[in-house]
Amino acid sequence: QVQLVGSGGGLVQPGGSLRLSCVTSGFSLDEYQITWIRQAPGKKREGVSCIRSSDGNTYYADSVKGRFTISRNDAKNTVYLQMNALNPEEPAVYFCAQYPLYSDCLSDYGKDNWGKGTQVTVSS
Fold first, then answer.
1. What pLDDT, on the 0 to 100 scale, is given for residue 85?
2. Residue 90: C-alpha distances to residues 48, 50, 105 (Å)
3. Cβ atoms of residues 96 and 4 within 8 Å
């Protein structure tokens, strides 16, 4: 059974950092791309970053380039999202999703599976 479980969200001040974790099971990370997606109330869902373990390629939305870093630990079947310099426009539920290899992993379409999200709040 495919599972993706996101965690690590919380309350952070503007300019602060958080690291999210996506623990996966039921499939091999080498066979899929994993994307972090965020959904804020009243806003369009946005793919912020994805990683393709088979070749190590990573992709970022323009809005997070230079501030967010995606990484993986294959031994733990886990994908991480390090988020730095968070701003007040970025609170959302962040969740991870599984995409086929070589698909557009930042698109809102084409997800195979996704998990429950974790809430990120940015406030002073």
1. 97
2. 11, 18, 20
3. yes
Q: Strands 68-73 and 78-83: what pairing?
A: antiparallel
Return the pLDDT at 106: 92
Among 83, 94, 90, which Cα is nearest to 122's? 90
Cα distance between residue 96 and residue 118, in whole Å = 9
At 113 the three-state DSSP class reads strand
Instruction: Take residue 38 and report the two structure tokens written for it.
Output: 């965020």
SS3 17: coil
Q: Cα(first)–Cα(last) distance of the chain, in Å?
A: 40
Q: Which of 18-22, 45-49, 103-107 has the lowest mean pLDDT?
A: 103-107
**Mean pLDDT in residue range 18-44:** 95
Contact 43, 98 (CB under 8 A): no
Residue 30 has phi, psi (to 5 degrees) of -65, -20
What number of other Cβ atoms are within 10 A of residue 61's Cβ?
Answer: 16
Position 37 scores a pLDDT of 97
